[in-house]
Amino acid sequence: MSEETTAPKAAESSPVLQVGAAVLVIALAVFMVVTLNNVKKQLEVLNKTATGISEASANGNLAGFQIKTTVVDGEKVMSFVSKPRDAMEAEGAMGETSGGPAPVADK
């Protein structure tokens, strides 16, 4: 009968490969942390810029409105209502720029 042959066995991982893999994993982890910190800083700057633009835009667009606070079922509800015409004209007379649309003349 034929003789049995044994399958070749894989060589054990050498300690050099294990140390190399550990160093590679640590280097990748450090790279990821540094990159994520940089991205976080950039996103914070972008968020501040977007907030500033949003607030400036809202101030200009909402210049013809005022906030009205009412109480409904014991809770404060805030809504925007048009400013009275005389209040808008008074602001214009004081030299304040509302940034909103100019009042329309009565026909």
Relevant terms:
alpha+beta, 52% helix, 107 residues, 2 helices
Description:
The protein contains two helices and two strands, in the order αββα. It has 107 residues and is an alpha+beta fold. The chain has one domain. It has a two-stranded antiparallel ribbon with strand order 1-2. Strand 1 and strand 2 (75-82) form a beta hairpin. The radius of gyration is 34 Å and the shape is rod-shaped. The protein starts with 14 loop residues before the first helix and ends in a 14-residue tail after the last helix.
Mean pLDDT, rounded to whole units? 78
Distance between the termini: 116 Å
Tell me the helix content.
40-55%
Major β-sheet profile: 2 strands, antiparallel
* Strand percentage: 5-15%
Based on CA inertia axes, which overall geometry fits?
A: rod-shaped
Number of domains: 1
The count of strands amounts to 2
Which consecutive residue ranges, at least 5 long each, have pLDDT under 50?
A: none
Largest sheet strand order: 1-2
* Series of secondary-structure elements, N-terminal to C-terminal: HEEH
